[in-house]
Structures are given as C-alpha cells and as structure tokens.
Amino acid sequence: MDWVTTLGQLMNTTLVFSTALIFGALGGIFSERSGVTNIGIEGLMTFGAFAAAVSTHFAGEAGMGVASPWIGLITALIVGVLASLIHALASITFKADQIISGIVINFLATGSTLYMVKLIFHGDGETALLKNVFNKVAIPWLSKIPIIGEGLFHNYPTTYLAIILVFVAYFVLFKTPFGLRLRAVGEHPSAADTAGVNVKRMRYIGVMISGALAALGGATVTLTTTSTFAHNTISGQGFIAIAAMIFGKWNPIGAFGAAAFFGFSQAIRSYVSLFAWSNSIPQEFIYMLPYVLTIIVLVAAVGRSRAPSALGEPYDPGKR
Amino acid sequence: MNKIFKIFSSSIVVPITAIVMGLIVGAIIMLFGGYDPLLAYQSLFSQVFGNLYDFGETLREITPLILTGLAVAFAFRAGLFNIGGEGQFIIGMTAASFIGIKLSGLPAIIHAPLAVIVGGIAGGLWAALAGYIKAKRGVNEVITTIMLNWTALYLGNYVVMHFLLLPGQQRSEDLPESASITIQWISDLFSNARIHWGMLLAVLAAVFFYIFLWKTKQGYELRAVGLNPHAAEYAGMNVGKNVVKAMFISGMFAGLAGACQVLGVFHYQSVLSGTPGIGFDGIAVALIGMNHPFGVLLGGILFGVLTYGSAGMSFGAGVPPELIRIVIGSIIFFIAAPGIVRFVLKPLYLKRKKGKVL
Any stretches that span the bilayer, and where are they (chain A) (predicted)? Predict the structure, then answer.
C-alpha cells in the first residue's frame, strides 16, 4: 500500500465527511451568537437534504443537466431560510422556549419531508436516485501537489464552498460591524438595544442565516454522498454539528477543526480495516472511536466552553 | 366571569387548545395532499380503540414514552438538557438482556426484578457519567450525551454480538421465561397484546418524580440548582453533586424504559443499525407535559395514541403515517408558544370580559 496515496485519500475522505458538519456547525454559530439556541439544526439539515433532492430531480427531468445540483443547492437554501423562520417566529416573536421550538423544527422536518416524498414519489419512502449530482473537481496545478493535492484540491465543489464559508463566517462575525452587532445581541441584548441595535431583527437574521447554512449542509449529503433522500439520510448529523459548534467554542475556525476531527474519525474507519492488526479489535470499538475520542479530548484539554451569555433567553426590553 | 378568566389562563386550556390546533394543522396538510382528514382521524382513533388487542398495544407504545419523557423532564428541572435518553435506553436494554440471559436459572421472582433494577441503574450510571464530566470539567452535557448515545449504540451491539448472540442471527438469544415481566393474564385479556409491568412502573416513576422533587429536601436542592446554580452554590449547596444526582435519576428512568422494552416486549435484543429514537421522542413528551411528571403521563399517552394510531390512519385513509409527526410538532409548537394560543383565544375571551388583556 502506497502510504502517500493513502494519506491523501484519507484527507480527502475526511473532508467529504466533514462538509455537511461544517455547514451545520456554521449555521449553529450564527444562530447562537445572536442568542438563539438552535437544537433544530438536524431538522434544518433534513429540510435542506429533502429540498435539494426533490428540486435536483425535477431540474434533471426538465433537462437542466449539470446545472441541476446547483438549483438543488439554491432551493435548499431558500427552504432552509423559510423553515428557520418557524423557529425564529416562535422563539423571538412569541418568546417560546428556544429548545422547544428547535425540537419542533426536528419533528416537523422528519414528518413533513417524508410526507411530501410519499406524495411526490407515489408512496415510496425515498426520492428517485438522482441522475445529476456533484462530481469531484480537481483544481488545476494545486491538485498535482503530493498528498495535499489529492487531499485538499480534488474534491466536491460543496466542500470547497464549505471551507471558504468558514473563513467568510469568521470575517463576518469578528471583523464587520454586522458581526459585532450580532454578537452583542447574543451577549448583552439590552446593552445592544441601548446602543441602537434592533435586537429582534438581528436575531431573526442570525436564525435565517443558520437555516440557510444548515440546509446547505443537508443538501451536500444528498448531492454528494447519498444521491437520494430517505428517512435516514440525516440521522444525527445535525446533533454532531451542534457538538462541533460547542467543541469549537462558537468560533467558525474552531468548529471547522471540530468538524474535521469528526470527519477524520469517520474516515479512518474505512482505512483502519486495511491494516492486519485491526482485525484483533472488534469493529464496534472502531465505530465508537470518534465519539469516545471527543469525550476524552473535551475532558482532557478543552474544558469549559462558554456559550454566548444571553443564549436561550428571549429578549424582553422591560426586564433589567 | 373570574372563573372563566382563571380557566383560560390555567395550564390546562393551553395544552388542550394546542392539541386541537395541532390536529387542525394536520387536517389542513392532509387536505393539501388530497386526503380526507375526517376519515383519517376516525381511522386513527379506531386503530387505537377499535379492539382490545390494539388498545393493549397502544399501552405498550405509551410505556417507554412516559419513562423517557420523565427522564428528560427530570433533567430539565435540574437545569440540564439530557439528549442522551437514546443511549441510556440502549444501555438499560443491554444490561437487562445481559442479566436476563446470563443469569438464567434464577427464580422468576428474583430474576425479572433484578434485570429491571440493573437496567435502570446502568442507564443511570451512563447518564451520571455525563453529569460527572459536567460537574468536574464543565463540559456541556448536550455534547457529552450526544456522544454517549453513539457510544452506547456500538457498546450495546458489541455486547450482543460477543456475549449474547443467537448464532447466525443479528440478535441475542431469547430471554428465559424467568426474566419476563409480561403480565400474562392481562395480556390474555387483551388478546395477547404485549402488556407488562412496565406500565405500572412508569406510573410509579412519575409519582416518585413528584414526591422526590417537591416533597424532599434533596428535591428542593435539585430544583434550586436548576433555577439558579450560582444562587444555589451561594446558599451552600453542592452544585456538582446535584448535577450528577439529577443525571443519574434521569438516566435511570430512560434505562428502565429500555429494560422494560426488552424484558416485557421483545424478549431479545437486536443488533441496532441506528439509535432507536425513543430518547428524542422523550424530549417531545416532556415538552408536551410541560416537564411536570403528571403532565408527562398525559403527554406520553397523547404521543403513544397518535403514534400507534398513525398506522390506522395509513390503512384507513391512505395518509402517510409520518404526518403524525407534523401534528405532534405543531402541538409542541403551540404549547411552547402560549402566546400564539392566547392570540387565538383572545377574541373568544374578550367577548366575555371586555378590555382586559391576557
């Protein structure tokens, strides 16, 4: 086995597995930095995966060819924003408990997507297998670099998009007035209000960005790895994305690192089996590895991660 | 008039209105899909109440929901969000299976209760681990319980595959009769519906929840920590200890749910391909029940009836059973945002009492 190729492939698979988690975690960050807990990432990803699958399917039927997955991606984004509005409406306008309205999103997502899939595809619990999905693109020149070329520069367009968005998100959150306001609203809404920031509007925007990003994450799953949408397309990835967000301390770059860590430990499963010594370890322990490792890392190194102070509290201007 | 006002603002009206509104949302969505909502709801209820077998099976469906609902609600009361019901359920199931299969030969009077108790304790310890990590290292329990869910899934599968396997199958050996908690005579009465002691256990658990939390000093401390950990600490309470304790009891409820499921319903344990979902359903049940033990009982009943009945809805009216999750989601939504319910009820109320805003 050529270890150079293997290493490159491992890096590549890591990024493929991380992509959806990166999107999901970034989504979580925008919502939570604005002070709205978003446990509904899982549901928003489900909505995105569903919207992408259906719209890509019909775009393909309509003869859009290679453009169809892009249409799928955009549709997912719109559907994600719309779905997140339910969460925003309940938790910001009606001051509902934010955890509850997040859970509501998860329920509505699994229920309504499968309901619609069955309506659209005549009783099947799964969308048709998509003919047009994203293919891996090699970036000229860069993909020729040993190890890193195969690892970083020969991947799905959505993976590139995710990585670019990590840095965009970082820039937006920490280097722009908008980001400052968004964070202020999440840390100390009444102070932000006094300074003339419209708290409710900022929070709505935070949640809507969250919906858009999480839905894109879901869309990448159907448009790259599964090519179809079924009840188990998004099973738990939204929750792992939330874990990545917390792990990464509500910072886009940290979350990227955490998502890559999860992606890596998922990817390594497929490679460990190539080694002879791995036969002596029960398969179940290899599956457990990413989760146990996360706990160990958290206990050993990271310790306390501090959430935005006003997280989870509806803003009440009358309260001091 | 004052009485009417009280009823409106009391906690009963909001959930009931929310349920009705949830069913209406479901009906509207069915109309959009070209289905007959009246026929669908009729089929739903006749599936549940149509014959004794199905009624018994509905009770079977309700039991674990109440227990995982209690698990989530209990943690909530202590200010903790236990997303780990899934994992604690699996651990409870696995521990009960292990005791059930490995200690066969014990008399039933010892064997079955022992398996239930060990299942509950194992689930409790699994959750307490997350509590301990939070207390010692400040790691958010949401992230640890999620990780522990997946760990439990594979750990459970490992135990089944390596210690309890029925050769050639993806499941454990059958549990012996002595480890069964089926109540045979009631089961016979309900034309062989799988009824077991878990139902009674779930009710007792709710009573225990109530008494512990509101009638004991320890419960007072737990609630104090839940309401304001800093104040509780300042008042001399050991926050960390309370966090571990709350997680242990919470996990115990979920573990009992798993133990009952394996000892009372399936009588063997399958190798799981994904987490069972019952822990997440418990979150919904806790929310519908507004984190009160008796509310959780009702929430579990509602959730169980709707879920079990959804199959009938599918046979009777062709409606995809997934629709019921939209209904449940909407109900939670309306309960969570009482503002919306009040908004709907306001015109009704204003007719009776002019001028006063709710």
Answer: 6-27, 39-58, 70-92, 99-121, 156-174, 204-223, 285-303
Q: Which helix (H) or strand (E) holds A16?
A: helix A3-33
The reply to whether B20 falls in a domain is no
Distance CA A103, CA A107 (A): 6
A248 Cβ contact partners less than 8 Å away, ≥ 6 residues apart: A25, A254, A255, A256, A257, A258, A259
Distance, CA of A241 to CA of A225 (rounded, Å): 17
Tell me what pLDDT residue B358 has.
47
B3 exposed, middle or buried (CB, 10 Å; 0-12, 13-18, 19+)? exposed
Residue B6 is predicted with a pLDDT of 56
CB B86 within 8 A of CB B275: yes
Q: Supply the DSSP symbol for B261.
A: I
3-class DSSP state for residue A230? strand
Contact A299 B142 (CB under 8 A): no
**What is the ipTM for the molecules in this complex?**
0.84
Tell me which residue range forms the domain holding B250.
62-299
Residue B7 has pLDDT above 70, yes or no: no
Query: B328 in a domain, yes or no?
Result: no
Question: How many Cα neighbours within 13 Å face the side chain of A265?
Answer: 19
Phi, psi at A230, each rounded to 5°: -140, 180
Tell which residue, B332, B324, B64, has the closest CA to residue A103: B332
Q: How far is CA A16 from the centre of its chain?
A: 12
**HSE-CB of B160 using CA atoms within 13 angstroms:** 29
Cβ-based neighbours of A42, under 8 Å, separated by 6 or more? A106, A109, A234, A236, A237, A238, A239, A241, A242
DSSP, res A185: H
A 234-253 residues with CB < 8 A to B: 235-236, 239-240, 242-243, 246-247
Best mean pLDDT range from A124-128, A246-250, B353-357: A246-250
Q: How does pLDDT run across A183-242, given as a tens digit for each residue?
A: 999 999 988 888 889 999 999 999 999 999 999 999 999 999 888 898 888 888 898 899
Which residue's structure tokens are 């779930």?
A: B202
| pLDDT tier, B354 (very low <50, low <70, confident <90, very high otherwise) | low
Cβ neighbours of A100 in B, within 8 Å: 287, 332-333, 335-336
B131 part of a folded domain: yes
Mean pLDDT over each residue of chain B, to the nearest integer: 88
pTM of the model: 0.88
What pLDDT, on the 0 to 100 scale, is given for residue B332?
87
User: Are A284 and B287 within 8 A, CB to CB?
Assistant: no
Number of helices (H), then strands (E), in chain A: 12, 2
User: A138: part of which helix (H) or strand (E)?
Assistant: strand A137-138
Does B98 have pLDDT greater than 50? yes
Measure the CA–CA gap between A215 and A109, rounded to whole angstroms. Answer: 11
Helix (H) or strand (E) holding A242: helix A237-247
Length of chain A: 320
d(CA B305, CA B19): 13
Amino acid type, B261:
Q
User: Chain A: nearest CA to B358, how far in angstroms?
Assistant: 14
- Residue from the list A93, A119, A246 with its beta carbon closest to the beta carbon of B142: A246
- The answer to whether residue B33 sits within a structural domain is no
B201 CA to centre of own chain: 13
Question: In chain B, how many domains are there?
Answer: 1
